[in-house]
Amino acid sequence: MTARTRARTPRAGWPVPRRLALVACFAVGACATSDEEPANPEPAVLRVTESGGARLTLALDRDALTTAGTAALRLEIESAESDSVEFPDSEDGFGEFAVVRDEAAGDRLLEDGRVARGREYVLQPFLPGEYELPALKVVLNGSTEVLTEPVAITVESVLEDPEDAELREIGDPVDMPVPWWWWALGGAGLAAAIAATAWWLRRRKAARRASRVVTPHAAALAALDALLAAGLPGPEQLGAFFLRLSDIVRRYVEERFGLRAPEQTTEEFLAAMAKSPSIQGDHQRLLRGFLELADMVKFAKFAPRREEIDASVDAARRFVRQTIPDDLVAADKDRGRSAR
Predict the structure, then answer these.
(1) 3 state SS of 319
(2) 257 phi, psi to nearest 5 deg
(3) 37 three-state secondary structure
(4) How do residues 148-193 score in pLDDT, each as one tens digit?
(5) How many angstroms separate the Cα of 221 from the Cα of each of 129, 266, 282?
(6) Which of 33, 106, 117, 323 is the most exposed place for a label (fewest CB within 10 A)?
(7) Which long-range contacts link 134-137 to residues 24+ away (Cβ below 8 Å)?
């Protein structure tokens, strides 16, 4: 396989719709940059790599920063919906840059039936100097590799002249008499600080515990409510609507049952589901009908009736509610009785 790579800038012939879409998506990552370095309105580096029918886009909001700043990196690959996608592992950083944030971006359904999948990273340098962001690899279907080009990045020190920076010599100790009431006042202040710190740590721990108690079924039901709150789609938006609906169900299945549903094709997912002892037969049939209809809408341009759209949403909601763990159902009933 021969990869064809070409570098592009947003100002030299980049199609307006794609350019605006990338700039809009990139604004989210740019919010993570430091306050002293304002985010660029357009990516400083924009590279496109095409290989094997897939298109990989690298967007970097800056190619020069200080040791106190960060840079937002976005990778987006356009390929068939049936492709499985593995983005670069950022645990050990990228070359001379640490990765302080790594999160998935939303999928987009393209006009040609393909899907654009994205991932966003926030990079932080270690030391000043001239560095190179290494080539990053995205793997399709476990074997096909699509590589970006290396990118040169300049990292400057926050010191005016780091070469001449020197530490001053430590002076001789100076004796200073301390009145007794200073010790009393300091002890009282220390006790108050300890008490305030303990109170703050308890509050923070309680807040973190509360924020972590978001069960998979609660997140899925909230996402379904948000999808319906936007209103039922028109004929042009049916594909995007069913893409989002199936994504909610697939993510719930992954978090609830441990199946890697978002990264599998419908056929792969149904085969894995059939082997799973955790999903009952009636739930498997419910999911099969729901996902097959979603594929018909997305790829066969099938236009379902209003009652079929309502039935699909109802099937997704019933599947989530019927697969809530028994212990959580019992806990909800206990909380309801205690509230009365």
Answers:
(1) helix
(2) -115, -5
(3) coil
(4) 999 999 999 877 665 665 666 777 777 777 777 777 888 888 888 9
(5) 49, 22, 20
(6) 106
(7) 134/94, 134/95, 136/58, 136/75, 136/88, 136/94, 137/88
